[in-house]
Write a structure and sequence with these properties.
Elements (H helix, E strand, L loop, with lengths): L7 E3 L2 E3 L2 E3 L9 H9 L3 E5 L22 H27 L4 E7 L5 H11 L6 E5 L6 H7 L3 E6 L2 H10 L11 E4 L6 E3 L13 H14 L8 E4 L20 E5 L13 H7 L7 E4 L7 E5 L2 H11 L1 E3 L10 E2 L10 E2 L1 H12 L4 E4 L4 E5 L1 H12 L32 H9 L17 H4 L11 H9 L3
Helix pairs in contact: 1-2, 2-3, 5-6
Length: about 475
């Protein structure tokens, strides 16, 4: 047992302070989270478009039949509630009374509050807590407390927690079971980098977590309420000086990337194999997500294509002005766009290479894509089912108008489509493959040598040794 690591009381029983990070759209499912809880930790079922099953045990494909986006959005919420309830029930059974089961939701997912109510209503006594990030989940405490369930907000700074505490959480203080500090430079998936922080300049998490603890103390929160370090957590021995450290108070650890590579992890074999081939720097912190958040994923051809698309971009004005002195004569059939001479030459070059369609962005720029690519972008935008509270790619917004009022952005992508595809066997190179920035350690860690893939129990036992 790694020195200083002690069980904590959570959900009415002793558990290891090791939490499985929730990974959305069918990745953190009952098999992985139930096994994590059975090994004595806190397993996390993702309640973001989780899978449901037919009577034969086959996954039900999430197909949409509604004619309008609003109709499809209602279908999405029904799928989300049914799937998460099914996953929680199965995980709870697998846990066999050990550990604890949390659920994870993204606050910025479409219908987040309705999904949360729907799931907690139908899983009473099974869910110990709700972790929630991607946005400012002010209502989280109120919803969780109404079902006698703990809540664990995900933040990336003390400042964010202070805002949540003052506005809402202080009113339901007794249900705050922990605060997840998710490092915005190290964690996989969506990251909470603020405009004041430089994506290229990672900051040491220690002072940031210390500042978070000081903020919690200002609010009168006990040092026994753990801060859960998430992002970049691999070996506990790397965090030796954090454990039993009076400056930080109680600390627990969240593992998001390591549980991807286990026997119980439901991700396809091709994705598991790719994780073992990554080198340092192969995970990219990027801004292409339609959420508007930064996010971290494997820099595969899917992401490289988005990078290249944004590089084929020029500014325009609708009238001749300033240095916009040349009329664009490619990619825009009969429309008046004025560009610089240099950009005109670049645009002609791109068209010569086959990028023959220019698509307008919300920022008064044009991006150049191939005709087949344009067809895919337009179809994906039209097929939108409102999976986010607001989406830059489709301009959907969960509001009375169902629109952000901005032009749909062709530099982004349909996140629901790609995450569903990769989780259910679609090609890794053609989809968004989320991973934390420590994923390169699979290749270096002797635990995984000779292609060894552990069970969740073997992984948790290994983590408990400090490795």
């Amino acid at each position: 047992m790694f020195k200083g690591l002690k069980p904590i009381v959570y959900g009415g029983r002793e558990v290891w302070p090791l939490i499985e990070g929730g990974k959305g759209v069918a990745v953190s499912n009952h098999a992985s989270s139930g096994a994590w809880a059975a090994a004595g930790g806190i397993g996390t079922v993702s309640a973001v478009n989780a899978d449901s099953y037919d009577p034969t045990g086959k996954i039900i494909p999430q197909l949409y039949h509604g004619r309008t986006r609003r109709d499809r959005h209602e279908e999405l919420i029904a799928y989300a509630i049914d799937g998460a309830v099914e996953q929680v029930k199965r995980a709870f059974e697998l846990a066999g009374g050990k550990g604890a089961i949390n659920i994870n939701v993204l606050w910025e997912m479409g219908g987040a509050q309705r999904v949360l109510h729907g799931v907690l209503e139908k899983t009473k006594g099974m869910v110990a807590g709700v972790t929630c990030g991607a946005g400012m989940p002010y209502k989280l405490s109120e919803i969780a407390a109404s079902y006698n369930v703990s809540y664990l907000p995900i933040v990336s700074s003390g400042r964010a927690f202070r805002a949540l505490w003052k506005r809402a959480y202080s009113k339901a203080a007794e249900w705050l079971a922990g605060v997840v500090y998710e490092d915005p430079w190290l964690a996989g998936g969506h990251n909470g980098l603020s405009n004041a922080e430089d994506p290229q300049k990672p900051e040491n998490p220690y002072p940031r977590v210390k500042a978070l603890r000081e903020t919690m103390r200002e609010g009168g929160i006990s040092d026994e309420v753990p801060i859960i370090m998430a992002g970049g957590v691999w070996h506990l021995r790397d965090w030796n000086d954090w454990i039993d450290n009076p400056e930080l108070g109680a600390i627990a650890f969240q593992f998001g990337t390591r549980p991807l590579l286990t026997q119980e992890s439901p991700i396809p074999e091709e994705w598991k194999a790719r994780l073992t081939q990554l080198d340092e720097g192969d995970v990219l912190l990027h801004r292409f997500s339609p959420t508007g958040f930064y996010s971290s994923a494997i820099r595969n051809p899917f992401l490289r294509n988005l990078e290249a698309r944004s590089e084929r971009q020029i500014a325009f004005s609708l009238e001749q002005a300033g240095d916009h002195t040349h009329q664009l004569d490619v990619g825009v059939k009969g429309k008046n766009f004025w560009v610089t001479r240099n950009d005109l030459l670049r645009a002609r070059e791109w068209v010569g290479l086959g990028f023959t369609s220019a698509l307008k962005t919300p920022d008064n720029t044009l991006v150049f894509v191939t005709d087949p690519e344009k067809g895919v972008i337009r179809k994906d935008q039209a097929d939108c089912m409102g999976c986010l509270s607001q989406c830059a790619f489709s301009s959907w917004m969960d509001s009375e108008t169902n629109s952000t009022g901005r032009l749909a952005d062709p530099r982004s992508f349909c996140i629901q489509k790609t995450l569903q595809d990769i989780a259910h066997g679609g090609p890794v190179d053609e989809n968004l493959a989320f991973a934390g920035h420590s994923a390169y350690r699979f290749k270096q860690d002797p635990f995984y040598s000779n292609g060894f893939v552990p069970t969740v129990k073997q992984l948790v036992d290994r983590i408990l040794t400090g490795d």
